[in-house]
Design goal:
The complex is a heterotrimer of chains A (280), B (298) and C (400). With 280 residues, chain A is mainly α. Helices cover 79% and strands 0% of the residues of chain A. The two termini of chain A are 14 Å apart. Chain B is mostly helical and 298 residues long. In chain B, helix 4 (84-118) packs across helix 10, helix 8 crosses helix 10 and helix 10 (213-242) runs antiparallel to helix 13 (268-291). Classes of the chains: A mainly alpha (280), B mainly alpha (298), C alpha/beta (400). At the A-B interface, helix 1, helix 3, helix 4, helix 5 and helix 6 of A face helix 1, helix 2, helix 4, helix 5 and helix 6 of B.
Chain lengths: 280, 298, 400
């Protein structure tokens, strides 16, 4: 370790402060999920678990959850396909306009969501509307898939950059055709990156509200349901319960995504450290 | 060379293989086949929508029915340039985005440094999960939770009460806190990745050459991690620039996002014209970020 | 090398250009308002039995509503087979754009939305034969200029109410009965940062109304149809008020309720709904219709001319006009029902009296929301007024 003990102390302190900052509002949400009252006052006066059963039996919550899951799965699938195709093109080929493609893939996630949402809504309403397209799950998926592509793209591209292209050449030399090469050589290398990218894309789609407000029409995804319910004073506590549920539920996919993508990051550092120690 | 038992099926003949051979021999066609669908989607659907928005900014909306009138006019741009409120709001939003970015960088750095260089492997895995988890916590609920926290009777004033300090949470300061909170994970992760990529050998060499911690930090670590900070800043800056939900919940002031959101329903051309402002800012920011090599750190 | 790059950018530009042409071409069909005044909507049944049968097939109705306006939805679904999905509108402008998106079958609209929707053909006139509760609706509400056109009824009236002045009784004197508490300089200073104002351009009419009482030489008569001079005066008043305003609540009633509960707001304008909710939570507030009069709203359920589920929508409109639904919503929202039979069904038997359902004189100084129009909505061709678009533009400036 290079850092002095003093530096390490301050770093630990700073890290602790930041972690506290990240988590205390979540603790507040968790506490409010047990708040008996409808109005959100502090300190909390009465405690109760009644809102949990209310939330569970609420039909609009279940419908919204179903919509969110379906939209998320479809958008992730589309993003996986598009992201993989695009990253394969960028990683393995040199062509003019290559930089432009990178730029355009990043654009949906770099541009403020309201711009994307506004543009999509205007197009769907005025251009696609007369062609019979209505707002609904399909339009939601269009919006989500567009910026989920970059998440998959980044992950797969990073992986492709780390794996040498000559393995594919070797495979071809051994007599495999393109499909076989893809199936037996490239895909196994990309698998975990795809999974990590897919999990993150799903997370992005599941929580999305800024663009979805513009593309959803009358359909409610879970975030849209939350946004609508935040405005309804009598149903507000249900939102806290749903939020707590979502936070707890998220530990699993996030943990796995990290395990999958971390095979070079963490292991690399460990290996480096061991090698460094061995050299001495 | 001994013969190796083939576990793979023998080469096939047939249309699949013929197509594959054709593709192998014509890399250009392969390239276009790969790019066709993503290009159509991103180029057609996404860029096409943006083009429509650009078009709409040159039209007007009928003052009574709000229907779009397809006549070319520069009135919308004239309005957003000449009316002071649009300039003030844009400037306010950019300032907020910059302040949020700085706050995120300052808060993220110790945590990312700890995760990358000091924590044990198990701790690091745990912390990565810990940082990613709030991303799932629903942006909306976090913003609304802050509403209660910032209230006159909320947690912050309750904690400051004994010191006799009163904090007006429903202000731009409160909003700055909320934005910083919301986008913090987006800064921690790239900075963590960037710090991790710095080989220990460089830092050891610096200390071997006589540099103390501070010197090493400023001369070696910071320049190397800077692209990652810029990468993270793309998110914090862009997300703040266009947000319309959090300002509505916390502050009474208008921001670019809230103005667009208010106007788009019945005055789409003005909203579209104004939307070009954040687009231009972000595109410029991206070009600078690319120059600073931030794209590799995304 | 350069040629290739040019080729790529050229193709790019061509793509954008082609799409723009498509957009321009396709967009052209949209700006024709349907001039026809037919009650026909695609898919609507020809008689009540057909409507009920079609509704069962449709199974769904999507509504744009003011918060709290959809009541007894479970009973409705059980009776008709139509599931109800609602979206709360923040303002009339918001609701217009939601309806125009084509995703909703109809909704409850105030006068400043209905006039535009009717003129533009976004809503269809209704066939009152299909509304069984039509005859029970107060005559004075029917065939008004905000819910009918060329003698045709365009919707089913819902209810009406004023925008009250609401204040916390522990911070503001109990006898307060004038709007000056949010307009006068010394009052603005006293309550700085604790004033709560509705965040929509229609609030300019409230400023105009105050000027009508305090500056009669401006000659303001109808607070929605203003000459440029009157309008500028109102805008100035609002700009003077803006720095003292603590929050602008954009149809987000929960936000205003929370801030009154916590004491972050102590005085401002409100809908009766918030008052009812705050009363339930035992927060010390009072409402009053100030002596200068006030703005208000008379809302109507209307069906979209492009509705995907017109049959369910008709049944819904009839449902909301029924005495049971009228009683439920009038009490929940704190407004006056338009079906007097509801007065017997309210839990609080004096509800209709408290809310002046039958007292027409009380409504004389309540100016229902309506749309500012260039021709001042009168028959005098010489007058010209500030348009809705200008109101909206000014509001953005006022909010700064």
């Amino acid at each position: 370790m290079v850092e002095s003990p003093l530096t390490r102390f301050f770093v630990r302190l700073g890290a602790g402060v930041t972690l506290f900052f990240i988590y205390f509002p979540l603790v507040v949400i968790a506490l409010y999920a047990f708040n008996e009252q409808v109005t959100q006052q502090w300190p909390i006066q009465d405690w109760s678990t009644k809102w949990f059963s209310v939330a569970f039996h609420n039909e609009s919550v279940r419908a919204a959850l179903k919509n969110s899951v379906i939209a998320g799965l479809v958008a992730t699938a589309v993003a996986l396909v598009l992201g993989t195709l695009a990253s394969l093109a960028i990683a393995r080929y040199r062509f003019f306009g290559r930089e432009a493609v990178t730029f355009v893939v990043i654009l949906p996630i770099a541009l403020p969501g309201i711009v994307t949402g506004l543009a999509l809504q205007g197009t769907i309403e005025d251009v696609l509307g007369p062609l019979g397209v209505r707002f609904g799950l399909a339009t939601i998926v269009i919006g989500h898939a567009t910026f989920c592509v970059v998440v998959v793209y980044n992950n797969v591209l990073a992986r492709l950059r780390r794996t040498a292209g000559n393995l594919d050449e070797a495979s071809a030399d051994l007599g495999a055709d393109s499909w076989q090469t893809f199936r037996y050589v490239m895909f196994p290398q990309m698998r975990t990156a795809l999974l990590a990218g897919g999990l993150l894309a799903f997370a992005l789609s599941f929580d999305e509200i800024i663009v979805t407000i513009f593309t959803a029409g009358a359909i409610q995804t879970l975030p849209i349901w939350m946004y609508a319910t935040l405005f309804r004073p009598t149903e507000l506590p249900i939102v806290n319960v749903v939020a707590l549920f979502m936070i707890l539920l998220s530990i699993i996919p996030v943990y796995f995504a990290q395990k999958l993508a971390g095979d070079t990051g963490v292991a690399g550092r460990e290996a480096e450290r061991k090698a460094g120690r061995a050299r001495r | 060379m001994t013969s190796v038992a083939m576990s793979e099926p023998p080469p096939r003949q047939g249309p699949g293989r013929r197509l594959s051979t054709f593709l192998y021999r014509h890399p250009r066609v392969r390239l276009w086949a790969l790019l066709a669908v993503p290009a159509l989607w991103l180029g057609g659907v996404y860029l096409g929508s943006l083009a429509y928005l650009l078009l709409a900014s040159f039209w007007t909306a009928d003052p009574f029915t709000a229907q779009l009138v397809h006549e070319f006019t520069l009135d919308n741009f004239r309005r957003i340039i000449e009316t002071p409120v649009y300039r003030d709001v844009a400037w306010r939003t950019v300032k907020m985005a910059a302040l949020v970015t700085v706050a995120c960088a300052v808060l993220a750095f110790p945590l990312a440094y700890y995760m990358a260089r000091i924590a044990s492997t198990r701790m690091r895995n745990l912390l990565v999960v810990a940082v990613l988890m709030p991303l799932w916590g629903s942006y909306l609920v976090k913003a609304y939770a802050w509403r209660t926290i910032l209230s006159g009777e909320g947690v912050i004033n309750w904690a400051l009460g004994p010191f006799g300090v009163e904090f007006d949470g429903y202000s731009n300061t409160g909003l700055w806190l909320v934005f910083t909170y919301l986008w913090l994970p987006y800064m921690v992760l790239p900075v963590y990745a960037g710090l991790e990529r710095i080989p220990s050998s460089l830092l050891e060499a610096s200390s071997d050459l006589g540099g103390r911690s501070i010197r090493t930090f400023f001369s070696v670590t910071l320049p190397l991690v800077f692209p990652a900070v810029v990468a993270g800043s793309i998110f914090t800056f862009s997300l703040t620039l266009g947000d319309y939900i959090a300002p509505g919940l916390i502050s009474s002031d208008q921001f670019i996002g809230t103005v667009i959101y208010r106007e788009y329903g019945t005055a789409l051309p003005v909203a579209a014209a104004y939307a070009l402002v954040p687009i231009a800012i972000i595109v410029a920011y991206l070009l600078v970020a690319r120059r600073l090599k931030a794209f590799e750190s995304l | 090398m350069r040629r290739n790059r040019l080729a790529v950018w050229g193709a790019f530009a061509l793509l954008i250009g082609a799409l723009s042409l498509v957009a321009a071409g396709c967009g052209g069909g949209d700006d024709e308002g349907s001039g026809s005044a037919s009650t026909e909507i695609e898919g609507l049944g020809a008689n009540l039995d057909e409507i009920k049968a079609n509704a069962k097939t449709e199974g769904q109705v999507n509504l744009v509503i003011w918060p709290g306006y959809a009541v007894l939805t479970d009973e409705f679904t059980a009776a008709t087979g139509c599931k109800v999905s609602t979206k709360d509108g923040a303002s009339s402008d918001d609701m217009i754009s939601l309806l125009q998106s084509g995703a909703y079958d109809g909704g409850s609209f105030s006068g400043n939305a209905t006039v535009r929707l009717m003129a533009n053909g976004d809503v269809a006139p209704i066939d009152t034969e299909f509304i069984s509760n039509w005859d029970d609706i107060q005559e004075g509400i029917k065939n008004q200029d905000y819910n009918s056109r060329d003698g045709q009824a365009y919707g089913v009236p819902h209810g009406r109410g004023p925008n009250y002045l609401m204040f916390r009784t522990d911070q503001v004197p109990e006898g307060t009965d004038s709007w000056n508490v949010i307009w006068d300089d010394d009052q603005l200073a006293k309550y700085k940062g604790k004033i709560s104002i509705y965040d929509d351009s229609i609030f300019i009419a409230d400023a105009a109304l105050y000027l009508k009482a305090t500056q009669p030489d401006l000659g303001i008569d109808n607070p929605y149809q203003l000459t440029q001079e009157q309008f500028d005066a109102a805008v100035e008043l609002l700009k003077k008020q803006a720095p003292s305003v603590g929050e602008y609540w954009p149809g987000d009633v929960a936000k205003q309720i929370q801030s009154y509960t916590n004491g972050d707001s102590v005085v401002g304008t409100t809908w009766p709904y918030q008052y009812v909710e705050l009363q339930k939570a035992n927060v010390p507030v009072a409402i009053v219709k100030p002596k200068e009069g006030t703005t208000g709203w008379s809302d109507t359920w209307m069906v979209s001319s492009k509705a995907e589920h017109p049959n369910c929508m008709y049944l819904w409109m009839d449902h909301m006009a029924s005495p049971e639904a009228q009683a439920a919503v009038a009490e929940a929202f704190g407004e006056a029902p338009v079906n007097i039979k509801a007065c017997d069904l309210t839990k609080d038997k004096s509800h209709c009296d408290t809310y002046h359902a039958d007292d027409e004189a009380w409504w004389d100084d309540v100016y229902y929301w309506t749309t500012p129009q260039a021709d001042c909505a009168d028959d005098d061709d010489s007058t010209s007024c500030v348009t809705q678009a200008d109101w909206q533009a000014a509001w953005t400036e006022i909010r700064s």
